[in-house]
């Protein structure tokens, strides 16, 4: 089967609701299990739905939301970098820095200096 492009297939309501749940709860400690409980589906089904319609895992989606919010906070505040990570749902400063570097190709402090 040929994979359909995002523009050819609209995102189903259940996936949109899961995305909304993630956006509303990204700063909390949430897991795929929490998303599955919210959606009334199994974790495997959640992973399959995200892969099929978003080409990303639920955890990758959650982290992308967290990183986008962290980048905005780095641009608009002088909150300590460690606190930015914690306030965006990362429970480790090291994991936050590593994730940020992979996504933005620089450390949070370098990003703040560039965008500040």
Account of the protein in words:
- The protein is mainly α and 116 residues long.
- It is built from 7 helices and no strands.
- α2 (32-39) packs across α3.
- The chain is elongated.
- The N and C termini lie far apart (47 Å).
- The model has no long low-confidence stretch (mean pLDDT 92).
Task: Outline the secondary-structure elements.
Elements: H1 13-25, H2 32-39, H3 43-54, H4 58-76, H5 81-87, H6 93-104, H7 108-115
Helix pairs in contact: 2-3, 4-5
Shape: elongated
The helicity comes to 55-70%
Largest sheet: none
Helix/strand order: HHHHHHH
Secondary structure category: mainly alpha
Determine Rg (CA atoms, Å). 16 Å
Strand-residue fraction?
under 5%
Number of H- or I-type helical stretches: 7
Mean residue pLDDT: 92
The stretches of 5 or more residues where confidence is low (pLDDT under 50) are: none
Strand tally is: 0
Distance between the termini: 47 Å
């Amino acid at each position: 089967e040929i994979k359909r492009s995002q523009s050819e297939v609209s995102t189903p309501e259940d996936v949109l609701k899961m995305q909304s749940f993630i956006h509303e709860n990204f700063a909390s400690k949430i897991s795929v299990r929490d998303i599955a409980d919210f959606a009334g589906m199994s974790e495997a089904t959640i992973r399959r739905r995200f892969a099929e319609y978003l080409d990303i895992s639920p955890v990758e989606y959650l982290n992308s939301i967290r990183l986008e919010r962290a980048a905005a906070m780095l641009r608009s505040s002088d909150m300590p970098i460690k606190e930015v990570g914690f306030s965006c749902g990362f429970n480790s400063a090291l994991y936050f820095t590593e994730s940020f570097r992979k996504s933005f190709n620089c450390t949070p402090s370098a990003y703040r200096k560039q965008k500040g």
